[in-house]
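Give me structure tokens for this 266-residue protein.
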Amino acid sequence: MTEAPESAGPRAPHAPGTPCWVSLMTRAADAAEEFYGAVFGWEFRAGPPGRPVRASVGGREVAVIHQLPADAGLSAAWTPYLASDDVDLTAERVRLSGGTVAVGPLDAGESGRVAIAADPSGAVFGFCTAWAHPAPKGARGPGLPAWTELRTVSAVRVTTFYARVFGYEAEPPSAPDHITLRSGGRPVVALRGMGHGLPRALGAHWLPHFEVADTDATVRQVLDLGGRLLEPAHDGPYGRVATVADPQGARFGVARRVGTVPRPRG
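Here you go.
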């Protein structure tokens, strides 16, 4: 038996490398609010003009939504943020370990000090020092982030990078090229090597999963609202899971979580 990676919902204190919030870049922020409000029951609080919209459920902030500039030429996408005790030091470790720091480090108000980087395979992630409205440790429930998974060509190849940057400890592979990373003694993120099965146009990417009460019903709702089904609902190592995309193309997972589950077999 093994634990599912710990919820990516905000909590305090954060062990380094623990997913602590997620950010959506989208071309239509108003449409994204309508979609995610219907799917997850999120409520939204707009900041000053030009600042991101904050999403919450049950009084717990879980995500921010950024409006992409019309001429940005970027695709809609979710980006996870991992906890750091020292963002500047983490940024230096990213560079020394073969990654790239694209934004920051910089101060971002109540979100703390933040930076955005890419690992050697090109997967984009952020890291930060604080979150303004932490949820209790291990908080679970519909609409909250459940866990975060990296999909890449080879999980083995990038494990060393993330271990150097965040001090993770890697569990023995639970299936061929499927690796869980621990921080503070707890599983916090999963790495999934997909080889030639990784979509070439998409490349390596982090995929947040959000908890739902009924995976199959949520998939039907996503489709009714104009989203797409990318991986049908199936029973996986952490519950019943499906991968979908919102109407703008941002990919994410939905999952009916279980507490402890059998380790997947290779």
